[in-house]
Amino acid sequence: MSALSPVSLGFHLQNRTYFPRAIDLPEIGYDEDETMRFFSGPMKDPLPDIYRVFRTDKRIHWCFLGERAPSLVRGMLSLRAHGENMPVDIVTGPANWEDDRRSLLPQILPKLKEGYCIALMYAQRTYHFNLAVERAEMIKIFPFCLDKLQALLRRMNSPLSEACLECGTQATQVCSRCKSGPYCSKSCQVSHWKNYHKQECAVVEQLKEWSSMDWSTYDSDRMPL
Ligand SMILES: [Zn+2]
Ligand SMILES: [Zn+2]
Question: What residue stretches are annotated with the MYND-type domain (predicted)?
C-alpha cells in the first residue's frame, strides 16, 4: 500500500507554451520572435536556407502532443492537437541538411492506431510544414486518446476521498507503481490491473514524470521520455 502523493495541479496537456500547436513550433533555420522562447538566444550564424540548422540550445522543455485522426489518404498521417487536424510527415536526420532527413512514418504508422497519441519531444517545424525530431528516441506513442490522457492526469490528482475504481467503495490505497488509483483493496487493484491498468500504468508514470518537471527551464539531465 502506498500513500497518495498528488502531483502538481498546474500541469496540463493543453498548455500551449509547453505543448504547442504545430503552427507555434519553431521553424528549423529561422529566428522568429516566437522562436526565442524555445532557444537560449538568437542564432549565432544564420546559414543559407539549404542548411536549415536544427537548433539544440534549448531554453525550455516542450513537446508536440497529437492524436491520430482519420486520414482520407491511406498511409498518410493526420494528427489532431488543440482542436486542429493536420496532415504531417514526421522526419529526423542530420542537423544541418534538410534533403537528407528521412520520414519516420514507416516505423510509426503500424504502432500509432487511430485515436492513439504521439509525443514528439522538442519537435521543430520544417519548411514543408512537417514535424522534425532530433532523434527517433524523442518519440513516444501512447495507446490512448487525448481525452483519456487528460482523464488519467485528473485521476492522478484525485484525492483518496474518491471511490475505488474497481468497486466504487471508499478508497484507501493507490497503485504501488504509478501511485494512481484509488482502490479500496489489494484485490481490487489486481482485478483493475488485469482489466485496464496494465496498459495505463506506464502512461501514468510518464505523465507523473512530466508533472514533476520544471518545463520552464531546460535541463539536459532530464530525459523527458
Ligand atoms: Zn474496490
Ligand atoms: Zn499503476
Answer: 164-201
